[in-house]
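To whoever is on call:

I kicked off a structure prediction for a single chain this morning and the downstream step that reads the tokens threw a length-mismatch warning. I double-checked the sequence; it's 136 residues and nothing unusual in it as far as I can see. Pasting both halves so you can look.
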Amino acid sequence: MEKVEEKGAAYGAEDYTRDGTVDLQGRPVFRSNTGRWRACSFIVGYEVFERMAYYGIASNLVVYLTTKLHEGTVTSSNNVTNWVGTVWMTPLLGAYIADAHLGRYWTFVIASAIYLVVLIHHHSRQTIMCLFALHI
């Protein structure tokens, strides 16, 4: 029979991530403390809410532009096409900012904060307008 040698709990060089990942203090990160389902659940949750917002806006944008802003159907369709193109092109800008300036983590945190502030501001304004309309 072969003798199988087990590794102990001692942290060696192989226990750290090999891609240069560091924590917020600049220290190397242990592989056992990164990623896995904790990170996956956050990303999946974020993507679900982002997709719900995108498709909720995209499905009603032509109607909103034609009825509330009184644009013609050609102009509103053109504006929606420009909006969709902008939505799909901005990740390239985010990738450049992440790679050249801020890094993945801070780019994601700042973009998520901006997204959340705009979403809360928009919904709070809509809620106040609805409550005001119900009160009258």
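Update from on-call: the warning came from a stale cache, not from the record. Cleared it. Sanity check on the structure: Helices lie at 36-67, 73-102, 104-135.
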